[in-house]
Write a structure and sequence with these properties.
The chain is mainly α. The protein has a domain at 54-284. The chain is built from 16 helices and no strands. Helix 3 crosses helix 12 (272-282) and helix 8 runs antiparallel to helix 13 (287-303). The longest helix is centred in the middle third of the chain and has 30 residues, at 103-132. The chain is globular.
Length: 348
Amino acid sequence: MSKRLTNILTPLIALLLGIIVGTIIMIFCGYNPAAAYAALWNGAFGNPYYFGEVIRQVTPYILAGLAVAFAFRVGLFNIGVEGQFLVGWLASVWVGLAFHLPKFIHLPLAILASIVAGALWAYIPGLLKARFRVHEVIVTIMMNYIALYTVNFFIQSVITNNKDRTPTIPGSASLASPWLQSITQYSRIHWGILLAIICCFIMWFLLEKTTRGFELRAVGFNQHAAHYAGMNVNKNIILSMVISGAFAGLAGAMEGLGTFGYIAIKSSFTGVGFNGIAVALLGGNTAFGVFFAALLFGALTVGALNMPLTAGVPNELVDIIIALIVFFVASSYIIRWFLERISKKEAK
């Protein structure tokens, strides 16, 4: 069995195992799995509105997944996507409110602000990792909390006068699409999905088709070997974190300029950045794998809202299924070992 086929089968088997174990839990708790999954499907794809909401939810998941996956491919663990997501959200809304410009200038400027904010936020742990060998997991986790409370401070004390949310951005800075909304029964779908798809191609092209991408992947495989080959390891570590943070910041713009059109103070994390970790794992840390994994997670998230209404099943069970999927993906060594055993038996 080829390595490529193994890489494809592993997340699929993890998904199947997560669903099977989730079904067993439903039966044990006295719920009807068939009714639950039917409600989940109908809540995600049952009508155009639900489908539009799935695409809307998928959009930030794709970008958050790309942020995590890009860092993973370079041997780094960017657990700070949530914080980079929040500062990107804040920067996009701030620029959206601060300027009055034509749309062809205002919207790209707000998007660029989110990218720069996320990249700068990720630059700090990248610099500390490269220069002082401070573990990026610790720094990025702590910077999530710094981002959360810093963003809340700016919302209340800088952008507004002690209010819980900012004003709504003008149409010149909005990603909203009346046409897309009208064909999906006025869901909150917006043009950000196109940006997310473009970013999938950008990550694939950068890592697989460029010299810089080869260097980044080489650093991820073995930093010492990359150093002896003449590559600037520190520079590539910082660059990879900056690019990862740029994807995460752009994910924040999808919420600030697309879904909501404003930013409100947060009592806790949104969860988008942490779900990005699960999306990246299930997607095998590849650009196109992330796209399909985000589609699955978006469908589960939106479809779960219909489960208590039509099947009487608490939507927390979807969180359990997602956690099981992540567990089996994280245990992929066992799945790979099993597939290798089957491959050896077939060879004999």
